[in-house]
Structure prediction request, 141 residues.
Amino acid sequence: MNKNHLKLIFIIFIFSFSVFAYSQQDSILRLIEKNERIFDSLNLKVKEIAISGNYTTKDYIILREMSLRKGSKFSLMKSLDDTRRILNLGLFTNAEIIPIPLNNKETILNVDVNERFYILPLPNGGIEDGEWAKFWLGLTL
Prediction:
């Protein structure tokens, strides 16, 4: 096998993987659309939004990213979009919006997030005894 054969095999592998990933994405989208029709037929209204897993981040930061509000009609596509928007904040490693049906017409949304671990380095420095020769730098966590 020469270099051209290896390049051709590599290109075929990448192309076949891309086609497989695209077909998987297409089947996932069809499944979401099917479930969206089921949720639409239920005509659920959001009664309450419960947020869990946020120890540092305030609730209003998560709520401002969501298009689903208290009293609005539940939509699976909006729920997935809201999940994406919450993750795009960069504050969480995982986010899920789980609808919990109460009765025939209402649901509670459980927004469950996992916060990232943060270490904030703060630079500090100074001069001892007013002499530039005794200049120091440091980092506080």
Notes: Confidence is low (pLDDT under 50) at residues 15-23. The chain has three helices and five strands. The CA atoms of residues 17 and 23 lie 10 Å apart.
